[in-house]
Design a protein that fits this description.
5-stranded mixed β-sheet; globular; Rossmann fold; 3 domains; Arc Repressor Mutant, subunit A
């Protein structure tokens, strides 16, 4: 994220300006705390404090006592327009997937991402389509189009990697989401799953829980799927910061091809069968969490009175469950929005991954203070 020779605090200020100009940060948007921003930018709180002070001086943010910091209503008027984002470089953008079921594309995770792409395309009068590459590994003949790739491979990484290398030679305008081939020098958008796992676990720790179970997806404890592996790292880091020993018995790994309520139900049951079951469960997807809530009910436990349960993803349905689900929103709308902007800016020749999209903790009813 921060790559120039300018002082770090000035790079942070410039990054905020860029995000305000592009519309990623909008007037009145709340911004994270100084401590959280220092973690996101991987710098000290002192440096972050200086950057925030400059942003206040330049009338770009406002601090309200006991409420937090916000983008000033007039912030986008304080900065010159970013012409790079207003001059489209492609006539059309494709969201390319590989055999993702139509019902899943209508799932909240995908729908938010697709909406982010569609919004940017509509703003610049660019055509947008979803394209299933299937097993053919073929793209449309349109060499001048932009291509956003997501969820294209599982067991055939080597085959797909050679295909992407061929597309690179054809000078296709490409960007990937949630996977990265550094040697091919294709930009990538990722979510900060480690930060999200940390936020979820820290929330439960703040509520007084010290024995926290986690349900993730993978082949085994030694082969956890990548996104969940990072969420587990965040879980372990939060425990470590509170001097709580890591207990592998509290980690339940479910081998599933897609996230289901059933895997959360089964994982919760396994945790409850422990000699010393947890007082809180971090089900590392919302579907798992919904299944865990059902399992808790079947075990005669009330959520959150007897046990706290939280999810991950920010699925729309999480706001209507009973009880309403505490979760971590991945902000996948920003995945799509930023990917489309990078293509329209003509910045697809840089192989550097973009800064991870920061997740957001959403506190609802399914977690409470441990009594």
């Amino acid at each position: 994220m921060l790559k120039s020779n300018k002082p770090i605090y000035q790079q942070i200020v410039d990054d905020f300006k860029s995000r305000i100009t592009s519309g990623e940060l909008k007037p009145n948007d709340a911004i994270p705390s100084q401590k959280e921003l220092a973690r996101i930018y991987k710098t000290s709180e002192m440096t972050m404090r200086k950057a925030l002070a400059l942003l206040v001086e330049e009338n770009l943010i406002i601090r309200i006592r006991k409420k937090g910091s916000f983008i000033k209503p007039s912030a986008n008027k304080q900065l010159p327009l970013n012409t790079a984002t207003t001059v489209p470089t492609v006539p059309k953008i494709y969201f390319v997937h590989r055999n993702v079921l139509a019902r899943l594309l209508n799932d909240g995770f995908y729908l938010a991402m697709l909406s982010g792409i569609a919004e940017v395309c509509a703003k610049h009068n660019i055509e947008f389509s979803i394209y299933n590459m299937g097993n053919s590994l073929q793209l449309p003949e349109e060499l001048d189009a932009g291509y956003i790739f997501f969820g294209l491979f599982d067991e055939e990484k080597a085959e797909f990697m050679s295909t992407v290398a061929k597309w690179k030679q054809e000078r296709r305008k490409m960007i990937t989401i949630q996977f990265y081939f550094p040697h091919l020098e294709i930009p990538s958008i990722t979510g900060d799953n480690m930060a999200g796992g940390y936020l979820a676990t820290q929330h439960l720790l703040d509520l007084g829980h010290k024995r926290i179970g986690i349900i993730v997806s993978g082949k085994s404890h030694l082969e956890i799927f990548s996104d969940f592996s990072f969420r587990l790292q965040g879980y372990r880091l939060a425990l470590s910061n509170h001097n709580i020993p890591f207990d592998p018995d509290l980690v339940i790994v479910k081998d599933v091809g897609e996230e289901t309520e059933a895997s959360g139900y089964e994982g919760f049951a396994e945790l409850m069968n422990l000699a010393h079951p947890p007082t809180a469960v971090f089900a590392a997807s919302d579907y798992k969490a919904i299944g865990a809530i059902r399992a808790a009910n079947d075990h005669g436990l009330k959520v959150p009175e007897d046990i706290s349960i939280m999810g991950y993803d920010g699925q729309p349905i999480s706001q209507w469950t009973t009880p309403k689900l505490t979760t971590v929103d991945q902000n996948t709308f920003q995945f799509g929005q930023r990917a489309a902007e990078i293509i329209l800016q003509g910045n697809t020749d840089s192989g550097s991954p973009e800064s991870p999209i920061s997740p957001q903790l959403i506190i609802r009813e399914s977690t409470r203070i441990k009594e």
